[in-house]
Design goal:
The chain is α+β, with helices and mostly antiparallel strands. It contains 7 helices and 15 strands. The chain has helices at about 15-25, 70-80, 90-95, 100-110, 215-225, 255-260, 265-280; strands at about 1-5, 30-35, 40, 45-50, 55-60, 85-90, 115-120, 135, 145-150, 165-170, 175-180, 185-195, 205-210, 230-240, 240-250. It starts with a strand and ends with a helix. It binds adenosine-5'-diphosphate and magnesium ion (MG).
Length: about 280
């Protein structure tokens, strides 16, 4: 069995850990930078030059800054699926979670609870939100650009070319959860605690073990199934005894989970994709 990791960051923690665990499992693993791939369209036929022969499984990580490189990487992911490779996550999974507006829309269509949200390119449209609320860019990750609005203030900076999501706060204490789902199974639940409004580990949040109840686990699995993300990092917060989805990451990093919980996510991923590829 040979697998390839297609990535914009060949030296990232994800790439390094996948390579390390694949070696331990005796699985041939290539790390391929999207920059070193080619799509050929000749006489109306589409083909690719991406990796060496023998690869059956591709762990694709097409998302990056919103630009033409990302669109190219998305199209490459789609083409690989059409060529019969087993690709994780699927193109459809990435499409369903392309940005937070699309993600929230798809969650809501599937009756999966998210906090009440107002989405607009105009700061003037957030009048009806009662502080405190979160103001987030529609395309972002790792808590970057997120503001916690505690009192009414001038939101005219949000007037312009980008789109914002004003979202009611569904936090009662200083923590929320990151749930990692793989192949319809919850493989890790991490409590993230922080004194800041955002609990992302990259923003200083501290990870610890959390014994999640069935409701939380089922919600995470439902979200990953609905969005067709076989592998997903799902942020969940609880208010008034009800769990809400804050964020679905179709391309989750797992350094925080591996380091805080001592769970070997990279090995789980390698084992999962190999057994799925052998089944098909
Ligand atoms: N509606 C909300 N209620 C409570 N906390 C929130 C809310 N929205 C975001 N947060 C906090 O901000 C963090 C980052 O928001 P998130 O939507 O996950 O964006 P990102 O893609 O940047 O991780 C969340 O993990 C959570 O700690
Ligand atoms: Mg998040």
């Amino acid at each position: 069995m040979a697998i390839a990791v297609l990535t914009h960051k060949p030296l990232s923690y994800f790439s390094r850990r996948l390579l390390e665990e694949a070696n331990k499992e005796g699985v041939n693993c290539q790390i391929v930078d999207f920059k070193n791939t080619v799509i050929l369209i000749k006489d109306g036929k589409i083909s690719l030059k991406a990796f060496e022969n023998g690869v059956k499984v591709i762990l694709s990580r097409p998302k990056t800054t919103l630009n033409s490189l990302m669109l190219y990487a998305m199209f490459l992911t789609k083409t690989l699926e059409e060529e019969g490779f087993y690709v994780l996550n699927s193109f459809q999974g990435y499409l369903n979670t392309l940005d937070k507006v699309i993600t929230y829309r798809n969650l809501s269509l599937n009756k999966i609870p998210i906090p009440d949200s107002v989405i607009s390119p105009s700061g003037r449209m957030f009048d009806e939100m009662n502080p405190p609320f979160f103001l987030k860019p529609t395309y972002g990750s790792r808590g970057r650009g997120i503001m916690f609005i505690e009192d009414f203030r001038d939101l005219s900076f949000a007037e312009g070319r980008s789109v914002w999501i004003a979202q009611s706060s569904v936090r009662e204490e200083n923590w929320d959860l990151r749930v990692v789902v793989l192949g319809g199974r919850v493989i890790a639940v991490m409590k993230r605690t922080s004194e800041k409004p955002v609990t992302n580990i990259s923003q200083g949040g501290v990870g610890s073990f959390f014994e999640a109840n069935e409701e939380v686990k089922e919600l995470a699995i439902k979200a990953s199934n609905a969005l067709k993300c076989e592998f997903a990092g799902i942020d969940i917060s609880i208010k008034g005894g009800n769990a809400f989805i804050l964020d679905v990451n179709s391309q989750p990093d797992f350094k925080g989970v591996e380091e805080s919980l001592k769970i070997n996510i990279a090995r789980e991923l390698i084992r999962h994709v190999c057994s799925e590829a052998n089944r098909n």
